[in-house]
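C-alpha cells for FlgN protein. Go.
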Amino acid sequence: MSLTKLLREQQQRLDGVIELLEQERELLAAADIDGRQLAEVAELKQQRLQQLEATETLRRNVQQRLGYAEGAAGARQAAEDAGCLEAWESTMERTQKAHRLNTMNGQLVGLRMGQNKRLLEFIHEAAEKTTYGASGRVRAQPGRFNTSV
C-alpha cells in the first residue's frame, strides 16, 4: 500500500473521529445530557480510534521498513520523498484538531463533574439541616433558631 493511500485512509478515519468528537462536545454542552447517546458516541469513537491506530501502526512499519527514522521527522521525510508532503501536513492538521477537540471535551467532562459534586454537596447539606424529631417537627440545629417555641 502506498504512503499516499495510507495517508488518505488516515485522513478519512481522523475525519470520522473529529465528527464524533464534535457530537460528543454538543452532547456534553447540552443542559440535559443524554447519557445513552453519549455512551453510543463513546463506543463509536473507541472503534474508530482502534481503526486509526491500526492504520498508523501500518504506516510506521512501512516507514521503518523503508529505512526512515522513527518519529515525525522520519515520517515527514518519507512523505516528502514519496511526493505526498501535502497529504502528510493535512493529516497532521487533522490530528491536531482531534487533539484540541478531545482536550476540550475532557474539560467539559471536568466541569460537569464539578457541578454535579457541588450539587450533591448542597443536597447533602440541606438534608442534614432538615432532620425531623419523633414529634414530626424539625429539630433545632446548631446556630439556628428553634421556631417551635
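The domain at 3-102 is CATH 1.20.58 (Methane Monooxygenase Hydroxylase; Chain G, domain 1).
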